[in-house]
């Protein structure tokens, strides 16, 4: 075991040096002929995507030591331990909300955004995001790109389902870049099961990796922000409401699950 630890430590160090040398010698080239990703076990999970599968969660050691953002380095303040599916959903929600500069709320269910809304008033953004698809939002994950204060926490805790106006909304996870002391206290009182995560904004310019049978795919991370999108109008009639469809505008609220803008 000691020999394994020694070689593993040296291998991780060599991988870091190799990556640095590649970046220094190949300016602008993202894809080296070969590379090693040093992953470190963070926790074993209760089960995988399905109950019969064993599962574990690893972090990229290099990014972790560099203080990079993302779900892998998130702090869990409260709630039940994370599952494999929780990590997948949380990653989808956090990556989506990190795209926006204006105050935004994202609701995710089974890795699919079912409600996204941006407003200067984060309370209203939260309400709009949930109302985009309240059925899917129930039991889902909500993510914010702003600090959760006491007022927002109370709204999350007491907000009633738009479907019947009576049942309190239930969530698996709440994710935000920070919480006030009172905000965290209020959320912790919502449920013993509610997972409360604090995460740094996901880094841009990273290499995106995905495993396929016998190999893997690599591509640049999708860092195009909604504000950078240029719409080309194909119809003769110029839409008067184009501004209300833009992210961050007062009228922006969309259900990505059904691809239906809600104005």
TrEMBL record:
<dbReference type="InterPro" id="IPR002695">
    <property type="entry name" value="PurH-like"/>
</dbReference>
<protein>
    <recommendedName>
        <fullName>IMP cyclohydrolase</fullName>
    </recommendedName>
</protein>
<dbReference type="GO" id="GO:0006189">
    <property type="term" value="P:'de novo' IMP biosynthetic process"/>
</dbReference>
<dbReference type="GO" id="GO:0004643">
    <property type="term" value="F:phosphoribosylaminoimidazolecarboxamide formyltransferase activity"/>
</dbReference>
<dbReference type="Pfam" id="PF01808">
    <property type="entry name" value="AICARFT_IMPCHas"/>
</dbReference>
<dbReference type="GO" id="GO:0003937">
    <property type="term" value="F:IMP cyclohydrolase activity"/>
</dbReference>
<dbReference type="InterPro" id="IPR016193">
    <property type="entry name" value="Cytidine_deaminase-like"/>
</dbReference>
<dbReference type="GO" id="GO:0005829">
    <property type="term" value="C:cytosol"/>
</dbReference>
<dbReference type="InterPro" id="IPR024051">
    <property type="entry name" value="AICAR_Tfase_dup_dom_sf"/>
</dbReference>
């Amino acid at each position: 075991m000691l020999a394994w630890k020694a070689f593993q430590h040296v291998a991780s160090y060599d991988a870091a040096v190799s990556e640095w040398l590649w970046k220094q010698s190949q300016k602008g080239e993202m894809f080296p002929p070969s590379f090693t990703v040093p992953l470190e076990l963070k926790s074993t999970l209760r089960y995988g995507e399905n109950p019969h599968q064993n599962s574990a969660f690893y972090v990229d050691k290099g990014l972790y030591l560099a203080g990079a953002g993302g779900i892998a380095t998130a702090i869990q303040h409260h709630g039940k331990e994370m599952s494999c599916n929780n990590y997948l959903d949380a990653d989808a929600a956090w990556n989506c909300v990190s795209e926006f500069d204006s105050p935004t709320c994202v609701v995710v269910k089974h890795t699919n955004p079912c409600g996204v809304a941006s407003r200067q008033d984060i309370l209203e953004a939260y309400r709009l995001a949930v109302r985009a698809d309240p059925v899917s939002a129930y039991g889902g994950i909500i993510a914010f790109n702003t600090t959760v204060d006491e007022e927002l926490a109370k709204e999350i805790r007491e907000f009633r389902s738009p479907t019947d106006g009576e049942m309190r909304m239930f969530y698996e996870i709440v994710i935000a870049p920070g919480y006030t002391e009172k905000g965290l206290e209020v959320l912790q009182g919502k449920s013993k099961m509610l997972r409360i995560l604090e995460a740094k904004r996901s880094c841009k310019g990273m290499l995106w990796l995905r495993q396929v049978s016998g190999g893997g795919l690599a591509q640049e991370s999708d860092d195009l922000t909604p504000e950078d999108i240029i719409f080309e109008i194909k119809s003769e009639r110029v839409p008067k409401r184009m501004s209300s469809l833009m992210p961050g505008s007062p009228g922006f609220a969309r259900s990505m699950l059904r691809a239906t803008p809600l104005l």
